[in-house]
Amino acid sequence: PVLLSYIGPEPAQPRTGGAHPNYVMANERMNLMNMAKLSIKGLIESALNLGRTLDSDYAPLQQFFVVMEHCLKHGLKAKKTFLGQNKSFWGPLELVEKFVPEAGEITASVKDLPGLKTPVGRGRAWLRLALMQKKLSEYMKALINRREILSEFYEANALMMEEEGAIIAGLLVGLNVIDANFCMKGEDLDSQVGVIDFSMYLKDGSSSKGSEGDGQITAILDQKNYVEELNRHLSATVNNLQAKVDALEKSNTKLTEELAVANNRIITLQEDMERVKEESSYILESNRKVNKQDRTADGHALTEARKQLKEETQLRLDVEKELEMQIGMRQEMELAMKMLEKDVCEKQDALVVLRQQLDDLRALKLELSFKLQSSDLGMKQKSELNSRLEEKTSQMAATIKLLEQSEKDLVKQAKTLN
């Protein structure tokens, strides 16, 4: 990162021949923090005075992103690639979605932008989308709290690893009061050169006005943050109450239905109770009349009735015995029928198996007869071929004899010539 001119109290420099590296890094952190304060303050003041949504052409907003880029690049470790060393703050920003799931939306949007080709361009687009989402402060706080992960990307004395990074993340909360809208399609974020314009922050005037403005802005920011927090709590409370109201309405409807069913059941039971009472009264009255008649009846009628009852009881017992015998015979017949059905089923299965075996034997017979015919035909062809081979062998033997005779004649002629 570019070394900024000194702003703010200067740490004590050791009196040695050269500046100590820790002192240089501390000085850079202090300068970057002060520049971030000025940039955020100027952006908020100008945005409130402007009173409209900011776009990418707004100069204070451009300077804010330049300062944030320098803060994120401070103390960044260089990654070695086959093209050389590369420093990019896109790596740590890409990990924010692991700590804050809401950041996954803007990370995916950045990766889907067609015009971005470099990690630097993706990091710049991510900062702009986070500001539009009004979650830049939240994301930066979540990232700074994971210093064990930041140590993979930053040196130990980098701004993001020290207290200044946390201070800047806290200052970013004030940016929630402004509304920004960026159209990044067609905007060249890969090749932009981030240069801080100090002329925007070098103003004449008394410091008292600045302090009063700071106080007013701080009060406005505090009020806005309080209202936003109160609004979030009220929204959550309203949602919870609405859910409870819905649950109570459903429960009330269910209880009303159950109450109506219970009332109908009570009415039915009352009607049944009245009917039972009437029947009981009628039965009691009938029993009284019967008892009265029994008392006045003579003993002969009672004896006849008892005798008839005994006969009917005996007849009933005989009928029950006969019925039990019939039931036993019926059960035996059903058991015999089941056994016959089982035997028939087994025989049918055996018949099916035998038919299948018969079909298999027929097929095997046909196959064997076909193979036998093929074998006879093959034997016939082989015998014909053997005859032709014997004939050809005889011809070749005769040819060999002729050649031997010719050779002998040639030998004789050669001897004669010699």
From TrEMBL:
<dbReference type="InterPro" id="IPR037213">
    <property type="entry name" value="Run_dom_sf"/>
</dbReference>
<dbReference type="GO" id="GO:0030424">
    <property type="term" value="C:axon"/>
</dbReference>
<dbReference type="InterPro" id="IPR004012">
    <property type="entry name" value="Run_dom"/>
</dbReference>
<dbReference type="GO" id="GO:0030425">
    <property type="term" value="C:dendrite"/>
</dbReference>
<dbReference type="GO" id="GO:0012505">
    <property type="term" value="C:endomembrane system"/>
</dbReference>
<feature type="domain" description="RUN">
    <location>
        <begin position="55"/>
        <end position="187"/>
    </location>
</feature>
<dbReference type="InterPro" id="IPR047335">
    <property type="entry name" value="RUFY1-3"/>
</dbReference>
<keyword id="KW-0597">Phosphoprotein</keyword>
<dbReference type="GO" id="GO:0005737">
    <property type="term" value="C:cytoplasm"/>
</dbReference>
<keyword id="KW-0472">Membrane</keyword>
<dbReference type="InterPro" id="IPR047334">
    <property type="entry name" value="RUN_RUFY3"/>
</dbReference>
<keyword id="KW-0175">Coiled coil</keyword>
<dbReference type="GO" id="GO:0043025">
    <property type="term" value="C:neuronal cell body"/>
</dbReference>
<feature type="coiled-coil region">
    <location>
        <begin position="231"/>
        <end position="322"/>
    </location>
</feature>
<protein>
    <recommendedName>
        <fullName>RUN domain-containing protein</fullName>
    </recommendedName>
</protein>
<dbReference type="GO" id="GO:0050770">
    <property type="term" value="P:regulation of axonogenesis"/>
</dbReference>
<dbReference type="Pfam" id="PF02759">
    <property type="entry name" value="RUN"/>
</dbReference>
